[in-house]
Design goal:
Layout: H1 6-25, H2 29-40, H3 45-52, H4 60-97, H5 116-130, E1 134-135, E2 141-143, H6 144-147, E3 172-174, H7 180-188, E4 193-202, E5 214-224, H8 229-244, E6 249-257, E7 260-271, E8 277-288, H9 290-295, E9 304-311, H10 312-320, H11 333-336
Bound molecules: phenylalanine.
Length: about 350
């Protein structure tokens, strides 16, 4: 290299060598950036060369200037090239290191399952809605009138003792059955009518294997023309066969409820595990008492009906072979898990 300023050109050559060597040693993008700062940065050695051009003579300057620029461009070009290589390498590394192993078992979020009581309520209401029944719900905090009086419980009648409920105010109580909804529904709907009412009920019962102070019922009510016990029996048989299987047999035993006349206790015939048969008491029912219709301004000369009320916890216990009602509310996941996959959802 012929030159007017050997020191500058020597220096330039030195820098080139050093820069190219440093570049080849830069193992990652961070090291490469350090190289860039060292040579091309504001305080970098190539910048320093550019500044030193001012000390040259006017003749020397163009050639030296061109050589410095050339070095600048060369180093810049090499850095860019190296950068692309390193970026590609980094990506390649990430692709191998972070590769998804699709053979690993997934981490599933544990999904909840519907509670058996909800499952049964869904099942029962859907059986009845297929038979044309309306589904209706009503309040749990009730007045004496709707829970008792309109249902033909005279004041101080001993039948009230069967349903000792919680009083929450002067004339307010927690309903002891879903029958209160019979009155609300008939006050708002003209016959003919068919309705089922699922919901919570409360009674002042001590907790044991078959009693809880809070439980669920589904009430049924039908009002039409010339309704008889035969209609009631057919309906309950159809319902219970749907729930427990086509072989299911039922029987009606005389009973008493103030709001039905005649009244019946409905039993279900079940095969026990050891092949024996047993009658299990399932629900209360009867023909709607004329006084109940009168309380709702429905003429009992023209209309008649039947009603029934079924305890859902009781039904669940029979259906699933649950021996202690408290299991339904212990919230033990191992118990509830067993209902996964049951029902429509
Ligand atoms: N309400 C009654 C009970 O809780 C059940 C029932 C409902 C009986 C409708 C007859 C008719 O025991």
């Amino acid at each position: 290299m012929t030159t007017a300023n050997p020191t500058l050109f020597d220096r330039l050559e030195e820098i080139r060598k050093e820069a190219l060597q440093n570049l080849s040693q830069a193992a990652d993008l961070r090291a490469l950036d350090e190289v860039r700062v060292r040579y091309l940065g504001r305080k970098g050695s190539i910048k320093a060369l550019q500044k030193s051009l001012g000390t040259l003579t006017a003749e020397e300057r163009p050639k030296a200037g061109a050589a410095v620029n050339e070095l600048h461009n060369e180093v810049e070009g090499e850095i860019d090239k190296k950068k692309k290589i390193l970026e590609k390498e980094a990506l390649g590394r990430r692709l191998t290191e972070e590769r998804l192993d699709i053979t690993l078992p997934g981490r599933a979020e544990p999904a909840g399952v519907p509670h058996p009581i909800s499952l049964l309520i869904d099942e029962i209401t859907s059986i009845f809605s297929r038979m044309g029944y309306d589904i209706y719900t009503h309040r749990e905090i009730e007045t004496d009138y709707y829970n008792f009086e309109a249902l033909n419980f005279p004041p101080d009648h001993p039948a009230r003792d069967m349903q000792d409920t919680f009083f929450v105010g002067e004339d307010l109580l927690l309903r002891s059955h879903t029958s209160n909804a019979q009155i609300h529904y008939m006050e708002n709907h003209k016959p003919p009518l068919r309705v089922v009412v699922p919901g919570r009920c409360y009674r002042c019962d001590a907790v044991d294997a078959t009693h809880l102070p809070l439980f669920h019922q589904v009430e049924g009510l039908l009002v039409g023309k010339n309704i008889s016990m035969a209609h009631l029996k057919w309906t309950l048989e159809t319902f219970l066969k749907d729930l427990f299987g086509a072989e299911t047999k039922i029987r009606l035993r005389p009973s008493f409820f103030p709001f039905t006349e005649p009244s019946a206790e409905v039993d279900l015939l079940r095969k026990t595990k050891d092949g024996k048969e047993e009658w299990l008491e399932m629900l209360g029912a009867g023909l709607v008492d004329p006084n109940v219709l009168l309380a709702c301004n429905i003429d009992p000369e023209e209309w008649s009906g039947f009603a029934f009320g079924v305890g859902i916890e009781r039904l669940a216990m029979v259906r699933y072979g649950i021996t202690d009602i408290r299991m339904l509310y212990d919230n033990d996941v191992r118990f509830l898990e067993q209902f996964r996959g049951q029902g429509a959802t």
